[in-house]
Amino acid sequence: MSQPLIPVTLLFADGVSHRLQVPRGGKLVETATAAGLNLLTDCSNGQCGTCTAQLVSGSVELEDYDRAVLPDEDRACGTVLPCVCRVTSACAIELPYDSSEALSEEPAPISAAVTAIEPVASETVRLEVEVPDALVFEPGQYVRITPQGADFHRSYSMANVPGTNRLQFFVRLVENGAFSQWLAAAKPGDQVELSTPHGTFFLRDEDRPRLFVAGGTGVAPFLSMLRSMAAQPASQRTTLVIGARTPGHLFALEELKALGSRLQGMDLQIAVEQDAEPGCHTGYPTDLIPKLGLDPATRVYLCGPPPMVEAGRRAAEAAGLAKGDVLCERFA
Ligand code: FES
Questions:
Q1: pLDDT tens digits, residue range 199-255?
Q2: For the domain 110-194, what is the CATH code?
C-alpha cells in the first residue's frame, strides 16, 4: 500500500518557495530530486554540514548524523540536515541559497588532466589539474573530483584564484582512503572529472573586518580568498589563524606571509598541537579567538574538521558575534 503524502514547503533565500508531496517517512532529498530540485548536498550522510537548513514549522526525523556537524542545541532550535531528513509531518524548511541553484540541472562534468602532484607537508599533497577552459567560481568554493573510472568522488576547495585553467587543491592523505590510494598511484596526464563549482562558503564582498580560521587543509579556500583579496588590496582588518598537528603539517606558510604583507599587514597567527616553535600557540587555532579582541562587525570564516569548526563558532559567538556572521565549511 502506498504511503500517504505529506506536504513540505521549501523556502529559498530569493523568496521562491516550492511545495513537495513526500511519502510519509520518505527521504526529503529523494522526493526533491524526483521533482527536479537539486538540493545542495555533498556527503549525503550527515557528516559535512553542507546541506544545513532551518525547519520553520512542523517536524522531521533525522537519520544518523555527526553531532559535531549539528550540535543538539542547534537541532533543538530547528536546524536540520536535509540529506538525512525523513518526513513525518507537514513542515516548512528554509534553505540558505537561491532557488536557481537548486533548479539548475546538474551540468556535465568537466574533464581535467593531472599536471602535478607534490608533497608539501606531512600527510598533505598539492594536486594540480588543467581544465580546457578557465574556471569561474567564487573564492572559497569547491568541486567534486572523480578519478577516471572510479565509483567515488571527493570534494576539494580550489586554492587558486578564479578565472584560470590551472586548478590547485590540497589533499590530506588518509590511510586506506580511496582518494589517497588513487593519488599515490596517479601521475601527470591522468584524467579526472570535476563537477562545476559548489558551495556557499565563499568570500563575501563587504567592507568589514575578516577573520579566517583554518585547521589542516582548511587553509586551501583561504589561499584562494587571500590571493583574490591581494589583487585588490583594501583597508579592512584581516586576521588569519591556522592550525595543524605539528609544524611539519603546516604548508604554504611563505606564501601566506607574503600575502599578509600585501594585505596591509594581515595578522597571521599559528597554532600547533605539538612541538610549537617560538611565536606559535600550543593548542588549537580556535583557542586564539577569544584573545583577538574581535570587532563585533567582523565576518568570521571557519574551515576545518567539524569539532574545530564547532569550537570556532562557539568562540566567535562568545566574543559577541552574531551567528549569521560566522560562515562554516566542515570536512571529514
Ligand atoms: S550533505 Fe548533508 S551533512 Fe553533508
A1: 878 999 899 999 999 999 999 999 999 999 998 877 789 999 999 999 999 999 999
A2: 2.40.30.10
Where does ligand 1 bind, in terms of residues with CB under 6 Å? 41-44, 46-51, 69, 81, 83
**Which residue from 51, 86, 329 has its CB within 8 A of the most atoms of ligand 1, so it is best to mutate?**
51
Distance CA 161, CA 138 (A): 9
Domain ranges of the chain: 5-103, 110-194, 210-330
How do strand 191-194 and strand 110-121 relate by DSSP bridges?
Answer: antiparallel
Q: What pTM, to 2 d.p., does this model score? A: 0.83
CATH class of 5-103: alpha beta
Q: Ligand 1 centre and the CA of 247: distance in Å?
A: 31
Q: Which of 60, 67, 81 is the pocket-test mutation for ligand 1 (most atoms within 8 Å of CB)?
A: 81
C-alpha cell, 276 = 610549537
Classified by CATH at the fold level, domain 210-330 comes out as: Rossmann fold (3.40.50)
| H helix or E strand, kind and range, residue 179 | helix 178-185
Which of the pair, 331 or 89, is modelled with greater confidence?
89
135-179 pLDDT tens trace: 999 999 999 999 999 999 999 999 999 999 999 999 999 999 999
Spatial strand order of the sheet with 299-304 comes to 281-282, 267-272, 238-244, 210-215, 299-304, 326-330
